[in-house]
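Per-record layout

source: Artemisia annua
name: Reverse transcriptase domain, Reverse transcriptase zinc-binding domain protein
length: 163
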Amino acid sequence: MVIKPTFQSTKLGKIGGSEMIMSHGDRLLKWYPEKQVQCPLCEECPDSHEHLFFECPYSTLIWQDMKKRIKKDEWSDKWKEILFDISEMPCNNNIMSIMRRLVLAACVYYIWTERNKRIFSNEKKDYKEVLKDIISNIRFKMASLTVKDSNMVNEVYKQWKSP
């Protein structure tokens, strides 16, 4: 039997030091292992955080593009590994540190928003449209940054300026 989640999420616990939200899909699978809740993005796999970030074919396409933009191709596509990796990196005002945080936050926000729109509004966007929204959001946030002029800053701005 395949069912789709219809309620908002609730707080559940902590993973890698950050608060995790468990969707009703995750909770339903825990309570009723015989029932399957499909991912609203790919409609193929069970809905879970691990799948949504970034094992789902839909979100993987977005994540792969963003990893290239911040030169982190070696980053995993597994949620827990990403959280661990980013928690081990310095969190400072270095442009690359800022970009890592902006990219991860924007990916999570826009993918989660797309998931919710599909569940609650029956609206669907192609991954390329979501990717454009993420890039636009990051460019907008970059425009508000006050940074020292350096080769790294210039390289980052040059790369994100191009389409």
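summary: Helices lie at 24-31, 49-55, 57-69, 79-88, 95-120, 127-143, 151-161. Residues 18 and 114 are 22 Å apart (CA to CA).
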